[in-house]
Amino acid sequence: MSRRRQLYEGKAKVLYEGPEPGTLVQYFKDDATAFNNEKKGTITGKGVLNNRISEFIMIQLGEIGIATHFIRRLNMREQLVKQVEIIPVEVVIRNVVAGSMAKRLGMKEGTPLPRSVVEFYYKDDDLGDPMITEEHITTFGWAALQEVDDMITMSLRINDFLCGLFMGVGIRLVDFKLEYGRHYQGDEVRTILADEISPDSCRLWDSATNEKLDKDRFRRDMGGVEEAYQEVARRLGVWPEEDRSDAPAA
């Protein structure tokens, strides 16, 4: 059977028309990018691992009442998800100084923050995803004030839950990126979590050694990238060795 119609291709995923109205098939690629697409490469098996890790986390979040676009995993690389209108704002939650925050503020990477910091970035690759404020978001109509409030509230709940989840398997959640979308059901519009949560979108450090278990190993040419992603999957109990079905959805 022929593959369904492709609707969008991003840096890490491809979206296809879903089998039912209001659904999409989300395909996870092995492609890796960094520094706003300036650095490109391939992380063997990344798509398979991110699919399983994100599935596990989305299910866990759903069980505590976080509305997500996830419906079910279809195979090794694909998920069935709800179709949403993506809000062009990335929400970043920081628990520890790292990455761009360390550079911007001249602070030592690894410095714990006294409280979690919420940052917003405008989703635009050509502009380098610039950092923005709530006033920018509402002034330019990227999201309504209530949507911003919803994203902040949900992001902080997600952060609290994931910090505990990862700490339970010996991993420190340093920071992570979330994306949200508008889900339309009749006359009702709801803000729900979209995209993925994986080592691509999180900074994950071993809680005992601070060893990096995320895409920073690719960004910084540290080596051991595939092994780091595999280690996260193993600790979460979703290592996909037993699942050999890698066929795309028809």
CATH class of the largest domain: Alpha Beta
Q: Give the overall average pLDDT.
A: 93
Gyration radius, to the nearest Å? Answer: 18 Å
Give, in order, the helices and strands.
Answer: EEEEEHEEEHEEHHEEEHH
Structural class: alpha+beta
Classify the oligomer: single chain
Q: Give the full name of the CATH homologous superfamily of the largest domain.
A: ATP-grasp fold, B domain
CATH architecture of the largest domain: 2-Layer Sandwich
What does this structure look like?
The protein is α+β, with helices and mostly antiparallel strands. The chain folds into 2 domains: 6-83 and 228-242, 2-Layer Sandwich (Phosphorylase Kinase, domain 1), CATH 3.30.200; 85-221, D-amino Acid Aminotransferase, Chain A, domain 1, CATH 3.30.470.20. The protein contains 6 helices and 13 strands. The strands form 3 sheets. Strands 8, 9, 10, 11, 12 and 13 form a 6-stranded antiparallel beta sheet that branches. A hairpin with a 2-residue loop joins strand 11 (171-185) and strand 12. Helix 1 (46-63) packs parallel to helix 6. The relative contact order is 0.18. The model has no long low-confidence stretch (mean pLDDT 93).
